[in-house]
Write a structure and sequence with these properties.
The chain is an all-alpha fold. Helices cover about 80% and strands about 0% of the residues. It has 13 helices and two strands; from the N terminus they run αββαααααααααααα. It has a two-stranded antiparallel sheet with strand order 1-2.
């Protein structure tokens, strides 16, 4: 294992710099020393929660991506590959439609709908792959393939529900729903819950990092050394799902963070989960914080959905990483 303390210190410093830049700058410009105390307090009360939200969502997505890559033994897997984000997004949009019918505020139902959708997707996934998980020891490759294909089909089904919800939405609300779907970090009400989920997931991942290292080398190898493979994989899926659900409930479906960050870090610092997993949280949080800063400033005063920025940056970076890793 390479020295982890210098790497984590560098990533922590970058994270603090990213949070500071996001708190000081925004769509109305950067804070100046001559600004009044009232305007400084107002801007900080808006920008600091948004910066912390971006960091928590980015860290959760990157950690979920790293865990999914261990689960599927595919360095190009991402946290959305099993349909969990699709379930969250479909639940949130359907809740928005119900709120419009009943006259309720949309912000009051978005997060609960997303969490319910993620829970439904999780239950469907476990129900459909339960038999494969039971026979994991005898056919690990087939089990992973069945899990992946089932997730892809669930994602397609939830994608159809998302399209249906957008097609019947009122024109006056359609833009806001699409904006949330692409990536919206304005709502910080779930920030404490997401931070708690992220910290618990990181602690669990750190504790089981040696077992995850063995699992990444193959199920048979891990079982030979006494790792409870089936239980570990089920817990791994649950932890990744919790991180994904929390991120989507807060900010919609933001792509490429959970795909590019773990894969890029793996090329730089190696595949030791004891170092990779906490590094993913710091790097993912810093990356999404900076992406949100760009979304707020690149065409200021207009704010872009942060998912647009992550896609525009993530596509070329992913293609470069893909060519370099030769996966």
């Amino acid at each position: 294992m390479r020295p982890c303390l210098p790497v984590l210190c560098i990533l922590l410093l970058l994270s603090l710099l990213a949070l500071s830049a996001a708190a000081l700058c925004g769509s109305t410009g950067c804070l100046r020393p001559s600004a009044s105390s009232d305007s400084v307090a107002l801007l900080l009360s808006l920008r600091v929660p948004r910066a912390l939200t971006a960091f928590a969502v980015g860290g959760a997505l990157a950690l979920a991506g790293a865990l999914m890559q261990v689960l599927l033994r595919n360095p190009l897997a991402d946290p959305y590959v099993l349909g969990l984000s699709g379930g969250s997004a479909a639940g949130a949009l359907l809740a928005m439609l119900a709120a419009l019918r009943l006259g309720w505020p949309l912000q009051a139902v978005t997060a609960p709908g997303a969490l319910l959708g993620a829970g439904l997707a999780m239950l469907l996934l476990f129900a459909l792959v339960r038999q494969s998980l039971r026979h994991l020891a005898m056919s690990p490759l087939l089990s992973s393939q069945r899990l992946l294909l089932t997730g892809v089909m669930l994602a397609a089904g939830f994608g159809a529900l998302i399209s249906l919800a957008l097609s019947v939405a009122p024109d006056a609300q359609l833009r806001g729903m699409v904006f949330w779907l692409i990536g919206d970090l304005d709502d910080a009400r779930l920030l404490p819950v997401t931070v708690v989920v992220l910290l618990l997931a990181l602690l669990w991942s750190w504790r089981h990092a040696p077992s995850l290292n063995l699992l990444a080398r193959g199920d048979a190898f891990a079982q030979l050394l006494g790792v409870p493979v089936m239980r570990l994989r089920v817990m791994l899926l649950c932890v990744a799902a919790a991180c994904t659900a929390g991120a989507v409930a807060m900010a919609g479906t933001i792509g490429f963070v959970g795909l590019v960050v773990p894969h890029g870090l793996r090329l730089v610092i190696g595949n030791d989960q004891r170092l990779l997993l906490p590094s993913c949280v710091l790097a993912g949080g810093a990356a999404l914080t900076l992406a949100d800063l760009l979304a707020r400033t690149v065409v200021a005063p207009v704010q872009l959905p942060v998912g647009v920025i992550t896609a525009l940056i993530g596509v070329p970076v992913f293609l470069w990483l893909l060519a370099r890793s030769r996966v």
